[in-house]
Amino acid sequence: MFNVVLVEPEIPPNTGNIARLCLATDSTLHLVRPLGFLIDDKTLKRAGLDYWKETRVVLWDSFPQLQAAHPEGRFWYLTTKVERPYYEERLQPGDFLVFGRETKGLPEPILQANPERCLTIPMTSKTRSLNLATSVGIVLFEGMRQVKTS
């Protein structure tokens, strides 16, 4: 359905939960190194339950490597640094939904190079951000809703 990209994820349980979301939506999980954990981490697998082995997971050495492998791909960059809500864009099957590290988000050069492709999850000023797995779930299931109703 979709491609979920985690650029330099740091927290294994988040990645495990996101793997489960990807399996539930028939999406592929792309992990861009460096990772803040080992891919065989117990907490990663525990969060992904026994679904981890069934999830399509692709490892990349760099984000440019992933982009070069998918030159026709539509990439959407999720960040707290823009005003354009994710639900205003019409997501399509095969789109790449790109999320950054839990502590810092996406690298600034990626955001600056793609301002027209940056989206945010609107929230009140009472919080800086949402948990990474929660954010992926929000955008991924909105994409599913859009595809099912189009």
Please characterize this protein's 3D structure.
It is built from five helices and six strands. Helices cover 34% and strands 16% of the residues. It has helices spanning 12-24, 42-48, 63-69, 108-113, 132-149; strands at 3-7, 28-32, 57-60, 75-78, 96-99, 118-119. It is α/β, with parallel strands linked by helices. The chain has one domain: Alpha/beta knot (3-Layer(aba) Sandwich).
Task: Please supply descriptive tags for the structure shown above.
150 residues, Alpha/beta knot, 6-stranded parallel beta sheet, 5 helices, 16% strand
Secondary structure blueprint with pairings:
Blueprint: E1 3-7, H1 12-24, E2 28-32, H2 42-48, E3 57-60, H3 63-69, E4 75-78, E5 96-99, H4 108-113, E6 118-119, H5 132-149
Parallel strand pairs: 1-2, 1-5, 2-3, 4-5, 4-6
Helix pairs in contact: 1-2, 1-5
